[in-house]
Write a structure and sequence with these properties.
Bound molecules: N6-methyladenosine-5'-monophosphate
Number of helices: 17
Distance between the termini: 18 Å
CATH superfamily: Metal-dependent hydrolases
Strand order of the largest sheet: 3-4-7-8-9-10-11-12
CATH topology: TIM Barrel
CATH class: Alpha Beta
Helix content: 40-55%
Largest sheet: 8 strands, parallel
Strand content: 5-15%
Length: 446
């Protein structure tokens, strides 16, 4: 592996406060701010992000305020709210208790749409050019919600964000080139600037997204090379860098075979609306593989991508069954014995790796000891992802900055990581071509 080669005149060091508190100051040092800023300028691919885990803490507070103002009894106590909105070390078991609390708050179609819209905007702001968002469809009869209407609410939110992103790009062209400058998840240090060539592709009011089949923010006819950022933290976007968003439907491990099959059937039905695959997730201590394997085989037969959370805890028999199933991708794989690790390596199944999630939940002991290092060095296909950016207080750029520091990767190695990630997406051939060309330009200019 290579050195990242960052300049280091009086660097601002970002610390992981949870680790600082627990283990002393130096262990909290995880990257320099200059590296984070550089990572924010890289086009990136996010393949493992759970919708309700990516919710902004502020949104949770605001939804509760609205419910309180409407005279509703609140589903969480002050203490629980503090727990949800504080990012830090938590055991996996704590995480799943937290997700139940978040679900008790985000109960309505409006809340789900809002969260989906915000999550898409946050990833776009972080220069994610391709996002596969995943969520578990939920039926809540008391709120008039079916699994189908839940999916519609998510798609509405994605569509709203894409249309807003498209409008911001186009309407601001004539007046203010810094229109994409808005507070970011971690402080708003990045600014978006539009390439003037976009002007030719903009219609007054902007173009809306195409939610029927393809979820892309305002693609325009201009296809020119990316501008080289003039310095600082400006992110320069060109029209063909508009974020592409796809949806995966998750099967929760608490669900039985019938519920899992229902999710797969919904995913197949919503293929024409941007649903590209199915995920198996949820508390790894719950349920058994045999309950969902039939539904997952049906997903594959229906032409859907399949990705599985595997080996988040040590569960060798189940992990062996999952590897034998040969899904398109796997998430985590933190706890494998030597034999399983060898099977994984020879399978060449791409891995979605979530550094901060795994460290904070103590699935791996520290960033430098994360299995990313070994797999990356061995040339195994790996993709850096956030998992639950709201719950773990991270962004994809931050995960890249942590990887750059912990594994001593240069910027071009990170671009190459993003470029390879394109091959593991569930995007179609044309979308992959477009994404490859974005990555290639970044490789040349960084
Ligand atoms: C920390 N590692 C993890 N391991 C396993 N499953 C996880 C997870 N993080 C999130 N989820 C899954 O995603 C749901 C929240 O998003 P949605 O309501 O579906 O949008 C959680 O309830 C859990 O099932």
């Amino acid at each position: 592996m290579e050195n990242h080669g960052a300049e280091s005149t009086a660097p601002t060091v970002i610390k992981n406060h949870a680790k600082v508190d627990a283990k002393g100051e130096d262990e909290g040092q995880i990257y320099e701010e200059s590296i984070l800023l550089a990572c924010r300028q890289l086009p990136k691919v996010e393949l493992h992000a759970h919708l309700n885990g990516s919710v902004r803490p502020q949104t949770i507070r605001e939804i509760l305020e609205e419910r309180s103002a409407a005279g509703e009894a609140l589903p969480v106590t002050e203490l629980q709210l503090k727990d949800i909105t504080a990012c830090g070390d938590r055991s996996l078991a704590d995480c799943f208790r937290l997700f139940d609390l978040i679900h008790a708050i985000t109960t309505t179609h409006a809340a789900i749409s809002r969260i989906a819209a915000e999550v898409v905007r946050d990833f776009a702001e972080d220069r994610v050019v391709y996002l596969e968002l995943r969520t578990t469809p939920k039926a809540r009869p008391e709120y008039g919600m079916t699994k189908e209407s839940y999916i519609e609410a998510v798609l509405d939110g994605i569509g709203l964000a894409l249309s807003q992103l498209g409008q911001q790009r186009c309407t601001t062209m004539s007046t203010d080139l810094s229109c994409l400058s808005r507070p970011g998840v971690d402080g708003g240090a990045s600014e978006g600037k539009l390439d003037v060539r976009e002007a030719a592709g903009c219609t007054p009011g902007g173009e809306g997204p195409q939610m029927d089949g393809c979820c892309t923010a305002a693609p325009g006819p201009v296809d020119g090379p990316a501008s080289v950022p003039s310095g600082g933290s400006a992110v320069v976007l060109t029209n063909d860098e508009a974020i592409i968003v796809k949806l995966l439907l998750s099967i929760d491990r608490r669900e039985d075979a019938a519920a899992a099959l229902e999710t797969v059937q919904l995913a197949a039905r919503y293929k024409c609306r941007g649903v590209v695959g199915v995920d198996l997730s949820g508390n790894p201590y719950v349920g058994s593989w045999a309950s969902w394997s039939g539904a997952l085989a049906a997903a594959r037969a229906a032409g859907l991508g399949v990705t599985l959370h595997a080996g988040e805890v040590y569960s060798p028999a189940e992990t062996a069954s999952m590897l034998a199933f040969r899904p398109d991708r796997l998430g985590h794989c933190c706890c494998l014995d030597r034999e399983l690790a060898e099977t994984l390596r020879s399978s060449a199944i791409p891995l979605e790796l979530c550094l901060t999630s795994n460290v904070l939940t103590q699935s791996v002991p520290s960033y430098p000891e994360h299995h990313f290092a070994e797999l990356y060095a061995a040339g195994h296909p790996v993709v850096l992802c956030t998992d639950d950016s709201g719950v773990f207080g991270t962004t994809l750029s931050r995960e890249y900055a942590i990887a750059a520091t912990a594994f001593r990767l240069r910027m071009n190695a990170l671009v190459e990581l993003g470029r390879k990630s394109v091959e593991y997406t569930f995007a179609d051939a044309e979308e992959k071509r477009r994404l490859r060309s974005i990555m290639d330009r970044a490789l040349v200019t960084k």
